[in-house]
Design a protein that fits this description.
By secondary structure, the protein is an alpha+beta fold. Helices cover about 30% and strands about 25% of the residues.
């Protein structure tokens, strides 16, 4: 498998990280993202790389869904959503990630919804980066689902 070379760079994200996931911090060059880092599952403040990856991938995947639906001439419902779950685990003494993308396309028949999700998985840059590299399961949900509850401090 050959690596596709980008012909035209549209955007470059730049981030500076210190300290790693154990009490470190990351900040983007434009200052729009400035976060404390923490080890997954520990108490206190801060996020972790797996959460940031889940947010980035789900946002990108939703944009890919919109592109594919537009190409298929399918009108998306206003409450289309992607819930990403990214697991951090070990195998053979080494760290790995795996993921699940649960895609809610309420009101769209299952066959059409599956075609949209399959097409988005081929279009999304995050999905392209993970193809054949990590275990990924996509699930299509055609009934409305409640959003992830927020915990208010």
């Amino acid at each position: 498998m050959s690596i596709t070379q980008i012909e035209k760079v549209i955007y470059t994200a730049k981030a500076h990280t210190i300290g790693g996931r154990d009490g470190g911090a990351s900040r983007t060059s434009d200052g729009r993202l400035d976060v404390k880092l923490s080890v997954p599952g520990t108490p206190g403040t801060g996020t972790n790389p797996e959460q940031l990856f889940a947010v980035g991938w789900s946002g990108c995947f939703l944009s890919a869904i919109k592109i594919v639906a537009h190409q298929m001439k399918v009108k998306l419902p206003p409450d289309v959503a992607v819930d990403a779950e990214v697991d951090l685990g070990t195998a053979g003494g080494h760290y790995f990630i795996q993921a699940r993308l649960n895609v809610s396309l309420p009101g769209i028949d299952r066959e059409t919804a599956q075609k949209i999700v399959d097409g988005a998985h081929l279009e999304c840059p995050y999905s392209k980066a993970t193809h054949s590299n990590i275990n990924v399961v996509t699930t299509v949900i055609t009934e409305p689902v409640a959003p992830i509850a927020r915990t208010v401090p």
